[in-house]
């Protein structure tokens, strides 16, 4: 499998979310050692930003237990940044003590999803986020904000783009260095992506834009390409295509890192990641989860061979 296309038309940075979003909805719970091996495989393949852990209550999300142990066991290589998801100040304190390189806060765009997923309204989450942002800044740790259910909510239906824009503007005002638009349940389409990216870019200031897509309705890869063509240079994906949200009905996997790499590389986009190695990691992860990876590249192989 070719790792890169020969004619470069742009660059995209991949944020590997498999160790966090990829595992949180699976029945199998990986050991700390297996989580570390997954992360090590991602780094060996060339991925340089890894959402490695989530500092949430393991009683609610048992798949995310052992975050501190995982961070203590990963190899700290130059140029590799490990991200920890936090939802409150306690989570931030844990993340800072574990010496993550970045913290990410998820702020849903709809109240019902926010209450079910995080036990807070959107306004309450934004207030919490402001406190987290201040403390992260004082600690010298970069903060990103993910606007979840940005393209649609399983409980409230269509998400008004104005609501997403308002959250993004407030995140930028808090000092977020990156704002991610997340299609948590995989309902977005390319035209919606293009429109929302343009709206958010107008209020994001100096914050980078990132996009996070699920392939629930087979639009995730088209959406990723639309985001790239709209100027987004950072995309989330998950090794093997595993993932989903335990608090969102029928929210199936993230777009697969290996399949996204094939799409980007064949389109002339540079990523610096070896798609063959990622595909092998996806097969390995499937064996640990006792589940066939949704990703296609490990089955079909690359082209030309």
UniProtKB/TrEMBL annotation:
Entries under InterPro entries matching the protein: Aldolase_TIM, HMGL, PYR_CT
Domain of life of the source: Bacteria
Keyword Transferase: no
Record's keyword terms, sorted: Lyase, Metal-binding
Pfam families: HMGL-like (PF00682)
Domain Pyruvate carboxyltransferase: 12-279
Alphabetized SUPFAM superfamilies for the sequence: Aldolase
PROSITE patterns given in the database record: PYR_CT (PS50991)
One Gene Ontology term of the molecular function aspect: lyase activity
PANTHER family in the cross-refs: HYDROXYMETHYLGLUTARYL-COA LYASE (PTHR42738)
Similarity comment: family membership: Belongs to the HMG-CoA lyase family.
Protein name in the entry: Hydroxymethylglutaryl-CoA lyase
Organism annotation: Marinactinospora rubrisoli
């Amino acid at each position: 499998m070719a790792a890169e296309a020969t004619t470069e038309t742009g660059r995209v940075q991949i944020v590997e979310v498999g160790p966090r979003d990829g595992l949180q909805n699976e029945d199998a719970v990986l050991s700390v050692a297996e989580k570390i091996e997954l992360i090590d495989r991602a780094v060996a393949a060339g991925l340089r930003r890894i959402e490695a852990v989530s500092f949430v209550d393991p009683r609610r999300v048992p798949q995310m237990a052992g975050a501190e142990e995982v961070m203590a066991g990963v190899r700290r290589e130059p140029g590799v940044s490990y991200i920890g998801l936090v939802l409150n100040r306690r989570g931030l304190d844990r993340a800072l003590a574990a010496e993550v390189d970045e913290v990410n806060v998820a702020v849903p765009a709809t109240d019902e999803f926010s209450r079910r997923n995080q036990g807070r309204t959107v306004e309450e989450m934004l207030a919490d986020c402001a406190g987290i942002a201040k403390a992260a800044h004082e600690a010298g740790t970069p903060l990103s904000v993910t606007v979840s259910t940005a393209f649609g909510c399983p409980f409230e239906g269509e998400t008004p783009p104005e609501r997403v824009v308002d959250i993004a503007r407030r995140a930028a005002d808090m000092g977020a260095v990156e704002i991610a638009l997340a299609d948590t349940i995989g309902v977005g389409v390319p035209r919606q992506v293009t429109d929302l990216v343009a709206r958010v870019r107008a209020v994001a200031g100096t914050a980078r834009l990132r996009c996070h897509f699920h392939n629930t309705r087979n639009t995730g890869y088209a959406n990723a390409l639309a985001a790239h063509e709209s100027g987004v240079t950072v995309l989330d994906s998950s090794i093997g295509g595993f993932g989903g949200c335990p608090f969102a009905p029928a929210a199936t996997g993230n777009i697969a890192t290996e399949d996204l790499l094939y799409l980007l590389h064949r389109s002339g986009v540079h990523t610096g990641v070896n798609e063959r190695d990622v595909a092998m990691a996806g097969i390995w992860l499937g064996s640990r989860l006792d589940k066939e990876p949704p990703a296609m590249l490990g089955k079909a192989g690359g082209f030309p061979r």
